[in-house]
Records
---
Amino acid sequence: MKEYSFYPGCSSQKGASAENYMRSTNSISKELGFKLNDIPDWNCCSASIGYAGGGELPRLVLSARNLALSEQAHPKQDVVATCAACWLATREAKERLEHDKSLFAEANIALKEAGLQLKNDQGKNIRHMVEVLIEDFGYEEIKKHVKKPLEGIKIAGYVGCQTNRPFGIAGESFENPMYLDKLTETLGADPVKNYDKKVSCCGGALAFSEPEKSQALIKDIIGAAYDGGADMIVTPCPVCQMNVEVYQDQINQKYGTKFKIPVVYYSTLMSVAFGQSAKEAALDGQVIPAKQLEQIAAK
């Protein structure tokens, strides 16, 4: 069984916005046969608030603390995150501290106050869960576990910006990454071809501070999915999932649209296709019900 040092991130906690992401991920981990070992006493990666006023060193040290705890608890295991922001923050911290000896020394001075030391072991990678699924298992292996193909569903693969830049998935185009399309086909559904908003930004935290700007971006993301005939949208990012799903009523009111399209995680699609129940796939966590997936899960 493959094992990974797992950084859950704040949004995956019980009652948080991406709890359903965590639940569906757990269901597919059992099916595929890998284990996620939580980093003990992990903390927030600082995400966008760290850029707003926390300062560079405190922001990097928050992720460095998680890495140091991972080194202690799960030596030599790759660090894996489901959240795009957590993945980016942690990977950036590791790479910045590897290449800046002065910054690395300062980070360890701060960590010493908490009784920790970061070695920044070169053998450990910081990976998004999508990377693990594609690189360590692959589409053919995933297909072997499909028990209930998602036939008759057309899906727009919304990658978003954070899981595509600056790092992205190995071998994928920055402008037109195809892994969600390939995964959709592997699970028996039909991807929307030429979905031109697949790497567009949803506005991120602007949804709170400048909602009009964010909602204009979201409207175009959803509109392009509808134009492609999509029944639902799939994404690997908790912020994208939340923004594109929960603001549809406000967008409809503002723009006169009639959007009501489910926005789901790839892990939700996989869980249903793997024959898991609606509860295991965390379909009860949808704000806009994914009725087609519910029907397949009930078979």
---
Amino acid sequence: MANALRMDFSALARDGLILAGSIRDHIDDTRGLRREVANGRLVAIRRGAYVESRLWHGLSGRQRHLLRARAVIAATGRPIVLAGTSAAAAWGMPIAGDWPAEVSVLDEWRGGGRSDPGVRASAVGFATATIETVHGMTATSLARTALDVARVHSFADAIGSVDWALWRKNPLAITVDELFDELARLRPRTGERHLRRVSGFATGLSDSFGESQCRAVIHLLGFARPELQVEIRDSEGAMHPDFLWREVMGVAEFDGKAKYTRNEFTHGDPGDVVWREKKREDRLRRRGCGVTRILTEHVAAPPRLERLLLDAGIPRGGVNTSRKE
């Protein structure tokens, strides 16, 4: 048998996952794998499931969670349905905060309610859940997943996830009606009002998680609801500011940190992004718009955001987070 210390684990991994039960013919015993964990070459993500350290440390939180989910699926002797945060990972839905180590599954109630280590099993809504196959995994539908994620998050954080499910640029996008239809099937014992508020406020017009959070906090602060992505044209072409309050011609743009740090936006030159944004802001001002820049730090500290918008003359409008009750 081959010595685990000399093994090419990349050749044995499947989608990055190394399962002890699948490589028994290539190793003397599983103690060799544990030694590889001890010397830092492998990371144990659950019993009998490993990932090469060099791969693991380069993965995003979502990618790590998906590997944990695949390990749970591989270790289960019967069909398994990803739910909640784990279904969100499968769909590619962003969530607030860190991705958990625990994998969430939907399971028919069998009494007792005990979950395996590293697995959170829930029977809530099992009988009415719509199940779909996503990237080779079985998960709750996008509509059910959006509701399940929203149920365990605050209004502003929930909006970030649900907006993505409705996003006009998302090829998997659902409609608001589909969201409410799923809510009617789910009929949760608790949290229904919260889910109705989230579903009624969500939109497909927000272009980032942070922008969605920003819009929700603006609303909770009692400001009038802005128009989103309205086209404003000049001789150079069309502009679509994030928020517009037409009655005062006030424009607000959400600027997340990613715009100035991630290569997909900067193309290696953050200064160029700043320059383009300044030129765009000048164009909006020439069209008679007052422009306010909202940063992530403002959204995280609502009193600062409130003062910023008041200084910009943005009108109040009251809080009403539901279109349907």
---
Amino acid sequence: MMSMKRPAFVPDDFTLMLVSTVVLATLLPAQGGEARFFDGFTTFAIGLLFFLHGAKLSRDAIRAGITHWRLHLLVFGCTFALFPLLGLALKPLLLPLVTPELYTGVLFLCVLPATVQSAIAFTSIARGNVPAAVCSASASTLLGVFVTPVLVGLAVLPHSAASTNAFDAIGRILMQLMLPFLAGHLLRPWISGWIERRRQVLGLVDRGSILLVVYTAFSAAVIEGLWKQVPLQALAGLLVACAVILACTLFLTGWFARRLGFDKADEITIVFCGSKKSLASGIPMAKVLFPAQSVGAIVLPLMLFHQMQLMVCAVLAARYARRVDDVPASEPARVAG
């Protein structure tokens, strides 16, 4: 029997699970002892998640990345400088559209590292420089463990109503996320084969830990009255805010790549690695950095931006691929450096 093809307008399975988790937390929020249990279990799951991220990062990828330093420098500049500057510069436009808490979430989104899997996948579909994408995306995850907490202290917490001490927040994220990450990376020579053989099981850890954080975060936020504080008008404004930031970064990454003389394959890599933000890193980091009652509103912009970037980049990757197919045989594309 032939399986029915999923309609184009239906989100992927993980997005549906995220939405279902938010609905569950809204209807049945964890409270009291149950909330404390979920909080402890979630902390363990986050440590395990970053341990596995560290174990999956190849040292060969780090070494290979050095050889194409101009591309990587531009990607990191877009990820950790262009995004935060856009978030701050667009404040007069964005703040009237959303609540102050949601704007803090937008700023938090802007300081996160890039995605790994989807950035590489879209680069491959678009016929870009895949080895460079692997290096840039992996290195972005590694840098994000160090750079994101610093940027949160400098750019996000000053705009937050939370009374979290910046240095205390940075110390917590380095202890809870960086140490497991480094431990996994140091143990890579002994456990990488075991991890490769169990990719599907580890994928469940990846997704399961994110769903746990979403459930605990939204449970605490719902109890504090999240949906009374976030009107429909603010949610609509948040969609506009995410669309504006994504459009600006997609345009600027491509423009910078062309102005600096990168070839088409490298331009594709820069666009897809420099314009994306990681849900897998962002949600665990938010739980560590912000008070429990604030996390729901903080991660809402990231969840919307994540789905939006997947949908837009899928269309963009297909367009890039068609342009490569249309290059005449007499005018071959240059090989990426």
---
Amino acid sequence: MEKELTRRIKIFAPQDASGKRIDLFLSGQNFDLSRSFIQKLIISHNILVDGKPVKPSYRIRGKEKIQIEVPPLEKSSLDPENIPLDIVYEDPDLLVVNKRAGMVVHPAAGNFSHTLVNALLFHCKDLSGINGVLRPGIVHRLDKNTSGLLVVAKNDFAHLGLAEQIKNRTLLREYIAIVWGHMPKEEGIITAPIGRARKDRKKMVVSRLKGRESITRFKVLEGFDLCDLLSIRLKTGRTHQIRVHLFSLNHPILGDPEYGGRQKWVKGVCDRHRPFAQKLLKLIERQALHAKKLGFVHPRTKEYKEFDSTLPEDIENVLKLLRR
């Protein structure tokens, strides 16, 4: 049975590929294999060049015989769970979900059940396997307490097509956020690099030395006494990117417990405004951040699709109080 499931590919490297890294060369072939997955295959000696293992950095000389063995996918040990999903769109290749705040996207330490993936496994018979057994179908993520739209791939073809758009920064991701204070200008671009915090590895920080390029565009939609309502578009998708960037400008997202958006900010508010700030916090137990719009070119039909979502009740309640 395993021989039937193992996928074997043989290819001779053309002379015009000379000088290319092998992982980059193979990911450019029509094998439906991502570069990161190819690197894993190389490291596990599932890819041989002229019968010998190589490193992912190996550079093609031309005319080498390359053998690829794609082992059968490890069977997921995750349990499908009958959790209601707000599905905005679905077809044979993908689906778009409006995730509620409080739901973890995929299993990880401390969260192996009640995740979006558990719900998807109940809803779908097939999900793409590129990201492994703990993250089937997951192309991009939202933080646990960030609500809104994300796209899920049902097969590897769709996954690779969507991942390519993220890599090329053509996939539209637009968020709505309520931030404390007033932004320095009506619209702008934040380009501060982001990396993991040295003392707390679960948190991210702006780091000029070891941070990765991070680009966030913002526009002020509405201004209030204590807050601004922002529209935000991501060019890159680093962990906690929007939250970290706004915190770095001393305008944390209202309600954000990890990045200065709760009592830490309220303590600095003048006595006259502090009771109102506390009222706002009572209306929302998480960061006031919602992934409102999502747009991409469908990998199979090549048709551009764009989706919009309504703001969740807690963010709407905050806005109602601010607008009074």
